[in-house]
Amino acid sequence: MKKIEAIIRKSKFDEVKEALHGVEVNFFSYWDVTGVGNEKEGHVYRGISYSTSEIQRRYLSIIVSEPFVEKTINAILSTAASGKVGDGKIFILPVEEAYRIRTGEKGNDSLN
């Protein structure tokens, strides 16, 4: 099992969610986060300067079994990319064990 953590643009969340459902990843957690990026310049939109050093993003936490790792990563990469600075990051971490609290199932059985 792997934990996939993705930080994406909030504007891309609905597309990413649909892509994940399309590859049968139907359960994940997410929350809104603010981070500091590499870009130090501000942008001007309609005469108003906006700082891009603090960026509003959405953080996704997804636990999948090994056969779903590549599908999940590809779904995120193909839908979250805009080609601009600040599209986000994906991190992959090992998961030693998982338990379903209601039934006591463990391992991959607890994920479905």
Name the strands of the widest sheet in spatial order.
Answer: 2-5-1-6
Examine the coordinates and then state which fold CATH places here, giving the name of the CATH topology: Alpha-Beta Plaits
Estimate nothing, just give the exact number of structural domains: 1
Could you list the spans in which at least 5 consecutive residues all have pLDDT below 50? none
CATH class: Alpha Beta
Tell me the β content: 35-45%
Q: What's the total count of β strands?
A: 6
Structural class: alpha+beta
Treating each run of at least 4 consecutive H or I residues as one helix, how many helices?
2
Termini gap: 12 Å
The helix-strand sequence is EHEEEEHE
What is the residue-mean pLDDT, rounded to a whole number?
89
Largest sheet: 4 strands, antiparallel
